[in-house]
Amino acid sequence: MERLQKVMAHAGIASRRKAEQMILDGKVRVNGKTVKELGVKVTPSDKIEVEGVQMEKERKVYFLLYKPRGVISAVSDDKNRKVVTDFFPNVEERIYPVGRLDYDTSGLLLLTNDGEFANSLTHPKFEIDKTYVARLKGIPTKEDLQKLERGIKLEDGMTAPAKVKLLSADTKAAKAIVQITIHEGRNRQVRRMFEAIGFPVQKLSREQFAFLTLHSLNAGESRELSPHEVKQLRVLADTGKRR
């Protein structure tokens, strides 16, 4: 279920703030009953009328984007920087990112107009695995990486245990490439975890989200999720089962 004003906004009726005012003004009916409160939630089967005209619901869409570095995980930016929705000029639905990737982080990002779906995938209780590949300054030892595997204390608390694997090490350049899998989504978490053990991240990419990968995509390219993939993600979120 989603808030009525959010559903109206996604359907292109008005901005969310204007939709809220329309509700307060008694211009919206749900299943034949006038609604004047902002807390009302609706389901896809509810009949919504705005000023006497039945609202056509926006179809639900689901996309996977290979986000390049230097792009904002948002639908707009007050500094006029490139945002992830710029890569979908022909998509009529009002899509937005599921979670976020930092400006200087590339990799797999989902976008949708399905609020319930997005919330289920980003809620921390569902523990959905996200795998990153990081290029580090310096070469961590096995003991260093074990600190991340056990969980490490950051300024906002202990992290959950991570899965960590050293992929390669260049002793001459004093650099390493490490794969790390976490299920939390704190701000700049992976970067802060490596900084906490003394190895700053020079480059970071999210390579996998649950069972989804970047296979066959280049930076800036995207594809629509298949119905089966969407169903798998729903099951994963509903069960809270980690993969």
TrEMBL record:
It comes from the Bacteria. GO terms for molecular function: RNA binding; rRNA pseudouridine synthase activity. InterPro entries: PsdUridine_s_RsuA/RluB/E/F_cat, PsdUridine_synth_cat_dom_sf, PsdUridine_synth_RsuA/RluA, PsdUridine_synth_RsuA/RluB/E/F, PsdUridine_synth_RsuA/RluB_CS, RsuA_PseudoU_synthase, S4_RNA-bd, S4_RNA-bd_sf. Keywords: Isomerase, RNA-binding. It is an enzyme of class 5 (isomerase). Its EC number is 5.4.99.-. One of its GO terms (cellular component) is cytosol. It holds the Pfam family PseudoU_synth_2. Belongs to the pseudouridine synthase RsuA family. One of its GO terms (biological process) is enzyme-directed rRNA pseudouridine synthesis. The lineage of its organism: Bacteria, Bacillati, Bacillota, Bacilli, Bacillales. This is Pseudouridine synthase. SMART domains: S4. Residues 2-65 form the RNA-binding S4 domain. The keyword Isomerase applies.
